[in-house]
Batch of 2 targets.
Target 1
Amino acid sequence: MNSLKTVCVNGLGYIGLPTAAIAAQHGLQVYGVDVNPLVVDTINKGEIHIIEQGLQALVKDGVEKGCFKARLTPTLADVYLIVVPTPFKGNHEPDISFVEAATLAAIPFLKAGDTYIIESTSPVGTTERMAELIFRERPELQNTLYIAYCPERVLPGNVLHELVYNDRAIGGIDEASTLKAIEFYQLFVKGELHKTNARTAEMCKLTENASRDLQIAFANELSIICDKAEINVWELIHLANKHPRVNILQPGAGVGGHCIAVDPYFIVSDYPRESRIIGVAREVNNYKAFWCAERTKTAMHDFELNHGHKPTVALMGLAFKPDIDDLRESPAKYIAQKVMQSEQNNFLIVEPNIKQHSIFKLTDTLEAYEKADIIVFLVAHKEFKTLSYLEDKVILDFAGVFKK
Ligand code: SAJ
């Protein structure tokens, strides 16, 4: 019989909230903790403050049944999950102050036999540092707690499915902690639970995202080479991928989001001499967005020279990847801002996944496509893929909408 009955989920964002809701659905009594009163109020009304398929109904169900309650502060529980953001500071150094703050808030409630697990993406050694912090504040708990790291790996847009079915790497500060954390995740995860130690689990998360960043950087670098060599990069990658051991990803306007564009810096920051290609991959992907902005400006100047008037420019897509409404760390948004800051043209900004934006005045997809002289695809949203290619317009397809 599992002894874990109550869980305190600290951080109710993109990962914490779905995790809390799923744990509640699987019979745990869940206390969700967030420092933002608006978030706490929204959840306790059975509503949600983020967009994720299927999440609203699950939260509502948990709240109505009384097995999911949101609060501003932690409370007594068997398991404490830390699921708060770990951004980076100005110099790309990881900022673990939210993990520290959430841990400090939970420390007064810890008792012998409790389990403390960090899920937040963290630099190597964070779990050990938090263990030291806990035992410094509560020395009497030494050797009585289970402390582990287990990174989340879910893809925004498919979180509820992946939370249950993805495999997980689970690493404790000792063997007993690893086994206890596995006991917890067994309550709602159907994917395989892989045993390791805390440092390896921390590095595993960073490695996954750094690896993807590196592979995208390869595709982005190819796209710049192909532009110069007058080769269609999409066709090239399609053909190269016919080789049984080659699998190149797709180039785009750069790499965005709050994971892949951030996590590799956690390795580079701690191991700057050793992590050379990881650092260069970040540079290549950042440069790709700059390059797209420059290519757009050049196309605008060429148009003006040839036609004697400034072109109307449609910037298609602002999100950080196709078919989502998330603009965080978005290369498309960066490109739009950069081009609009330096040029005095008529710009039509299109983002079908959001209704309005505080900086950009948005235009409907078809209207912009018809009115603009230059069309710049920054994201391959599904709405854009239904448009037909117009030979009489200048089309800059950085996102591979037409793959022309
Ligand atoms: N991208 C490309 N070309 C590609 C694939 C992606 O340019 O071929 C770009 C996207 O447009 C986007 C960026 O990369 O700007 C990141 O998108 P993504 O879909 O690769 O990943 P995320 O950031 O939504 O989610 C990642 C996932 N990690 C991996 O696939 C290794 C997810 O599983 C993690 O849980 C998530 O980061 C996270 O939270 O760390």
Target 2
Amino acid sequence: MSMIYRPQKYKIEDKAKLPFIDDNEINEILREVQSPTQEQVREVIQKSLAKNRLSLQETAILINANEPELIQEIKSAAKELKQRVYGKRIVLFAPLYIGNLCINNCTYCGFKADNKAQKRTTLTDDDLREEVKSLEDAGHKRLILVYGEHPKYNAKFIAQSVKTVYSVKSNKGEIRRVNINAAPLDVEGFKIVKASGIGTYQIFQETYHHETYLQVHKSGLKRDYDWRITGLDRAMEAGIDDLGIGALLGLYDWRFEVLGLLRHVNHFEAVFNVGPHTISFPRIQAASGIEVDKKWAVSDDDFTKMVAILRLAVPYTGLILTAREPASIRNEVLQYGVSQIDGGTNISMKGYSHLEVKQDIDAEQFEIKDDRSLNEVMEELVDTGFIPSFCTACYRLNRTGEHFMEFSVPGFIKRFCQPNAMLTLAEYLEDYAPLSTKEKGYRLIENELKNYEDPNFKEKLMERLHKVKMGKRDLYF
Ligand code: SAM
Ligand code: SF4
């Protein structure tokens, strides 16, 4: 295995200088605990319920627990832990595809260079403004911009698109946080993108398994495993301390990928003293011009178990689930640990401003299975007792990275996240919701208010909710 690039600025323990994904080590850990006892599994669950991070070995014990009774216990524990750590809030965002030009040949992706059926487009400035206006008119406040890998989509281009998005204001609508999912850049490039005011930079390793990585990344820059896996280290060096990692499930054994993700988390903590903000775990979906071996396809049962295990393994890392999954799966795993979802998703190029075109497989990266409108998603969340949130307060108050105190300050969720969720929900109810959602939403807010015992804080919150009703916007704690 080759040595990998590492920012020199940081003093790294000798151990962290080694390539941090060692396939043999992961395989060995999975083999060591192939048949865990009930006691072992329950012991790990208890450790996690006490809000402790799990080691790779402990996580492997949960991964290898196969008795239905134990799987149920894992899921119930994840549900409990999620409730304790995150409360009832679910953060909502929308993906926005900026361009589908791509020089790479990832076997699983409709944008791959060799796919001649894909209609290639890059949004012009005007297209982008139109898309953002449509998203704002639906009620969105948080976007993730997505790009193929192409010389045209360089750092300056990405930064310019971010600035354009922030500049669009439609009625009371505005985008308050722009995240990025794009190819890894060099440190200078990441600095340029950071200066445009982004939130999270996401790069998925796709598969942590070296051999599979080479099999599925046939050509192009992405074929270089080491350049990709060190991408977020360079982002960190450039000052972007809000990072998203991910694995594309279905390329290799999900058990291996879970431990790869955890190793990646450990790496950030060892080197930068802060873990990634989010983990994504998309399952491969049908796409134009792709053929993916079904050997490693992840069943619904394994997928839901995996989400519960991730929740228990890294209690403080956000888990993202997208509209690739159908509503039924989304609703189930929301219970076990997912903290962010997209809503009203349309990944066709220019799809938000041309809603008449539902899904066109040759003008999008892959098929989605949840094409409900944002309001339908919001209403279902409210019906099931979740508080949909468009909150962007932490990032705007610099509560990010090492200083991201969300989970280390006692009562943080209750004092900041939950009230901010209510305030952004109230904005949505005032500006975008149909009457039935509005009534249900305010009922939920009323009920939540009953949980606030501190009269001073409750008064402040009620005062701000009243101001939102009177037309004030963008209030947060
Ligand atoms: N081109 C950049 C890259 O590859 O890093 C940006 C990301 S790509 C547009 C977004 C993500 O979509 C990929 O990282 C991959 O995990 C996921 N993806 C690609 N093909 C997919 C498919 N057929 N089904 C589900 N997700 C897919
Ligand atoms: Fe290009 Fe990204 Fe698709 Fe690979 S996953 S073909 S890099 S857009």
